[in-house]
Each structure stands twice: as C-alpha cells, then as structure tokens.
C-alpha cells in the first residue's frame, strides 16, 4: 500500500512531462532551398537543436520539431524565418542563425515569441558588394534611425555592428548620390592623440588606429573603388584632430570610439555638422581609455542632447552582439548581465 502513492506520483509527473512537450511539423514548398537552410552537414539544424534543446528530424520537404513547448515554437519560428530569408535572396550563415535565434527570445507584448522573426527584415542596406540585413531587433531600430535622423548616437559593447552598419549606410548613400562624400574618423590615440613618437609619416602613424573603418569599407566596396574614392577625396579617413575648423556639408560623417573624446573634442566635432549631412557617433561608454574617464565627451553629449529634435540615441546590449557567440559571453563575463 505504501508504494501506490509513489507510483501515482511518478505517473502524474510522466503525464505532465509529456503534456509540456510538443511535436510540431513545418512544411517547405521549395525543396531545392533546403540545402541552404540546413547548412553544410546540417550545421544549422545542429546549432538550433543545441541552442534551444529540441530535436529536429528532416523528412523530405518537412521538418519535425520535438521539445519543450516554448522551445519547439521558437525553433519553428527560427526555421521559418531562415527559410523566408533564403526565399528573399538573403544568404544564411552561422551568424544569421544565431541572430534569428536571439531575436526569437526577445520579449514582446504578445509574449516571449516574436512572430516577426518568421518574416524577412523590411529594412536593409545595399552596397556594391552585399546587401546587409539586421541581425537583432536593436539593429532594426538603428538601421531605421540611420535613414531618418540627422545625428545618431550608437552606444554599446563590441561586436554589435555599430560602426560597421554606420559605414555601410554611408557607402550606400554615397553610391546613390544622396551625399557627396564620407568623413570617417576616430580619436587616433585613446587619450590625447599623441602621434609624434610613432615611426613614419602622418598616414602611417594614424592608419593602425583607423583599421576597423578600412575593414568596413573594403567589405562594402570593391578595393579599387575604395582606393579611387579616397584618392579623389570622396572618402576621407582621418583622426579626430583633423576635424577642427571645418564645416562638413553634404557629407555622411562617422566618429568611431567616441567614448575616448574629451568634452571639448566632442563639442568641436558636433559643431562641424553642415547642411545636407548626417552624423553617426559610435562608442562604448563602459570602455573609456581617457586618463579621467569621468570627462568622456560621449557620455556628456548623450546627457546634454537627450530629447533634442533630430537626434536619436540607440543603446545596444549583450544580446545584440553579432560576432561569434563567445564574444557575447566574454562581454557578459567582464561587464555583468546588464551590460
């Protein structure tokens, strides 16, 4: 008699466990696209299984997804979203898979599942070499701001696409003729721009500090176009100190590593803004390398300009990191879960 309650309890737990699991089926109407959807050696399916704790089985043009109710629903949305992106002509890689998985977990008013995950993004940046689509909900907001506002502050940790998307949008607008030139800048040295001790001429001194900007340019324009446009002055890459005394009209201006500007430098930079221009200021307020972090021009400007018409502030967090997933975990380890 003493064993019956335990047996009933085990039966109840087993029934509850079965009730909390789901088996969903997804059918795709273009079987020839499934190779791109599944990835080489089914790596995309494996990534989704590992991240969401589900089991996925392919049967012809159908997928069976089994797991926890919420996880199975997320996996279904992720697979549908990836498939629709392929149908729309977008390429799917490991980063895109991780991004869609992350977006599927972002809270909404309707609950934990984002139903728009299943749809290809409506905002994108077209360049000579590629079409760039958002990989997080914050990137959607940022890319919309890049086409709408005069001055945009992009704040957040490394790997969230702040500078890359700004340069891509700048290239796109240069190609379409909506701006005449690009001005890409950053503090040449973290604190004080002391270049004298470095070997070489001025270009050789500053190029290492501007390498991330060059990388973004070469990723969005053919190399010969980058070199030709730099030579003609359509693209100017220079340290922040070179901005003093200028008025920048009909230009797309990007300032990277802005947390390492002083208050005076930031004021100088912002007042360079001219007619027909757009300005993007990128930086991570938590990574200030100035001798006195409390005088960072980035934090000061965001505080002073909050609510000013034509200026938007887009904050990124750890969940927006779109590099290798381990980068997000590194940022969280250093800066805490609320970064």
UniProtKB/TrEMBL annotation:
A Gene Ontology term for the protein's cellular component: cytosol
Subcellular location field: Cytoplasm
GO molecular function, one term: ATP binding
PANTHER family tied to this protein: PHOH-LIKE PROTEIN (PTHR30473:SF1), PROTEIN PHOH (PTHR30473)
Top-level division of the source organism's lineage: Bacteria
Spans through the membrane: none
UniProt entry keywords in alphabetical sequence: ATP-binding, Cytoplasm, Nucleotide-binding
Chain ranges of the PhoH-like protein domain: 132-335
Pfam families reported for this sequence: PhoH
Alphabetical list of InterPro entries matching this protein: P-loop_NTPase (IPR027417), PhoH (IPR003714), PhoH2-like (IPR051451)
Protein name: PhoH-like protein
Family to which this protein belongs: Belongs to the PhoH family.
